[in-house]
Amino acid sequence: MSETVRDGKFVELTYKVTDRKSGHVLSCVEFPLGYVHGHNEILAPSVHKELEGKSAGDVIEVPIDGNRIFGPRDESLVFTDYIENVPREYRQIGTSILMENDKGQTHSFIVTRMDDETLTVDGNNPLCGREVVFSLEILTVRDANDEEMNAGGAIRAEPNIDPSMMRQV
Questions:
Q1: Distance CA 27, CA 127 (A)
Q2: Is residue 82 domain-shared with residue 59, that is, in the same domain?
Q3: pTM over 0.85, yes/no
């Protein structure tokens, strides 16, 4: 009998997030993502709820309303500035920038638009204002070991590097 997803189980899965309106894939995780169910909620709560009782090999689709999870878009979190005022390392679409206000509070922004003269950053969650579908494939379901329970997810071994193969720089 195969194991089912429930609290204390180690689960590995892959997923993609697709915009329902456009059909575009917004995010894709092809390398297995491992977590301990009920101890490390790495995805939206509604996704974790839908995983309950499923087994390795199952593929599920979970519709998500981004407004319910992240709230409506807040246009006051969108800023455009002249590109010459922006450091070079931030001049690429998709770059994440952590900014701090005068009260010491931090917020993450993503570069969303750029042309020859201006650059725009957006502090809204990318799923804000969108209806998306999470498509998940469950690869592994098994009892989590003590180390995984303590860490809340997969424990990866350090790379085994042969020192004799390293060259001095």
A1: 10
A2: no
A3: no
